């Protein structure tokens, strides 16, 4: 049998893709997560951090981490400061616990250093391998439901309700109406198998939003602006040996590990790149990318950097290699100088993309063994806890906890690996620490 030679840096031929498709996928991924450039400065700004500096730090850290993912792991996954982690940083650590944002950045910095060490010694890789195959598929499905919920919420199609928790919003006006129009356009284009249908849907929706008053161009002047300086090396090492600091550090560590693990597994499964035995290709390098991004992000002045579930939008647009990630990384750099232009795209325009990707990721549900309760019930918990708890990591936690409990209760101990047992104990201890 002839040995297949690698064709170029990203091996496009072997991955059955083209440069044009990868670049379109990278643009799609960027457009679906560009909101972080607006949202992250707003959240961290509530903690007293200068928003202009956070914007620069967000773009630079995202570009650096995604660039490492592109060349080291050759995967179509983008990274940026994590939602949820930035809220914990601002509202729990700084506002709730009363610590300075400089100390919170220090915790993120040490977390990133530990992640690099864990990645180099394959500890995080072992965690991914310890997740059973059925749970890996369930994680993909759960992420699909989760990002669809994010899309519905961002558009105002689904809103909070004091009586029923959630309810339908007003679909006849504003963002919700625009998102519905955009969703119709996107699913029709996708059904017609139009290349780049998700990206076209985002751009068309943004344009339609102008006469509807959702895409706000009233204050738009020049599309160009020079970036502000980042908050470089703004650390506070004075309280790093306290128990409170350890609690903050551990929470950052725990959430980021399993957010990243869940995202990697879900997006790679959606891309069809998962191995025959459920392994994620080049997982060590992928995990190293978010560790390097976290260290760089903390040094520049932003919260924990992690793999982004919105990468699934780029995968749905055809992304299969690191060229998709490289394209997204370049756009983060470009955004530094054209922030007014990029920030014009409203969340209602990207919401249809997230909803369609949710549909695509649901397809993995057909491969889950629901007939065996010890496999199906943990998969069910992993799926439902992601949208219900609004957290990828909680889906992984409850799926794995129920897996170990059911396997042990039915005396199927051979199905539980040593690493899985260790994770089970860590998850239990985590509840007491919190």
Short description:
This protein has 434 residues and is mostly helical.
Radius of gyration: 21 Å
Spatial order of the strands in the main sheet? 1-4
Total count of strands? 4
Strand content: under 5%
Structural class computed from helices and strand pairing: mainly alpha
Task: Produce the secondary structure layout.
Layout: H1 19-33, H2 36-45, H3 51-73, E1 79-81, H4 85-96, H5 101-120, H6 123-130, H7 133-155, E2 158-161, E3 165-168, H8 174-191, H9 197-212, H10 243-271, H11 283-300, E4 305-307, H12 311-316, H13 322-337, H14 339-342, H15 347-361, H16 373-389, H17 392-409, H18 418-433
Antiparallel strand pairs: 1-4, 2-3
Structure description:
The chain is 65% helix and 3% strand. It is mainly alpha-helical and 434 residues long. The protein has one domain. It has a two-stranded antiparallel ribbon with strand order 1-4. Strands 2-3 form a two-stranded antiparallel sheet. A hairpin with a 3-residue loop joins strand 2 and strand 3. Helix 7 (133-155) packs antiparallel against helix 17 (392-409). The protein is globular and about 65 Å long.
């Amino acid at each position: 049998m002839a040995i297949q030679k690698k064709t170029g840096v990203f091996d496009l031929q072997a991955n059955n893709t083209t440069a044009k498709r990868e670049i379109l996928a990278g643009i799609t991924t960027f457009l679906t997560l560009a909101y972080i450039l607006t949202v992250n400065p707003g959240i961290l700004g509530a903690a007293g951090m200068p928003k202009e500096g956070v914007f620069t730090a967000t773009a630079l850290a995202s570009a650096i981490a995604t660039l490492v993912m592109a060349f080291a792991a050759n995967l179509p996954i983008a990274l940026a400061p994590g939602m949820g982690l930035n809220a914990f940083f601002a509202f729990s650590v700084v506002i709730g616990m009363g610590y300075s944002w400089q100390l919170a950045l220090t915790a993120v910095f040490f977390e990133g250093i530990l992640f690099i060490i864990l990645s180099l010694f394959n500890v995080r890789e072992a965690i991914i391998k310890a997740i059973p195959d059925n749970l890996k598929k369930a994680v993909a499905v759960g992420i699909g439901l989760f990002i669809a919920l994010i899309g519905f919420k961002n558009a105002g199609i689904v809103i909070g309700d004091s009586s029923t928790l959630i309810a339908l919003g007003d679909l006849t006006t504003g963002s919700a109406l625009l998102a519905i129009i955009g969703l119709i356009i996107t699913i029709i284009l996708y059904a017609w198998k139009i290349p780049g249908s998700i990206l076209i849907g985002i751009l068309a929706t943004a344009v339609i939003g102008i006469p509807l008053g959702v895409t706000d161009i009233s204050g738009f002047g020049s599309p160009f602006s020079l970036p502000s300086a980042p908050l470089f090396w703004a650390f506070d090492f004075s309280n790093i040996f306290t128990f409170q600091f350890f609690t903050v550090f551990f929470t950052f560590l725990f959430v980021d590990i399993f957010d990243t693990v869940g995202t990697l597994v879900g997006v790679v499964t959606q891309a069809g790149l998962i191995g025959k035995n459920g392994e994620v290709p080049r997982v060590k390098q992928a995990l190293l990318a978010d560790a390097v991004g976290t260290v760089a992000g903390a040094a520049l002045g932003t919260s924990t950097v992690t793999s982004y579930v919105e990468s699934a939008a780029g995968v749905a647009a055809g992304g299969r290699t690191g060229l998709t990630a490289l394209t997204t990384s370049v756009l983060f750099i470009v955004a530094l100088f054209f922030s007014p232009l990029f920030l014009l795209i409203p969340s209602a325009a990207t919401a249809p993309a997230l909803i369609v990707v949710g549909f695509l990721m649901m397809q993995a549900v057909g491969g889950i063994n629901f007939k065996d309760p010890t496999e199906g019930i943990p998969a069910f918990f992993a799926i439902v806890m992601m949208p219900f708890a609004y957290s990828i990591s909680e889906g992984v936690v409850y799926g794995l906890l129920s897996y170990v409990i059911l396997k042990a209760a039915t005396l199927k101990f051979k199905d539980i690996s040593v690493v899985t047992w260790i994770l089970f104990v860590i998850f239990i201890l985590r509840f007491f620490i919190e």
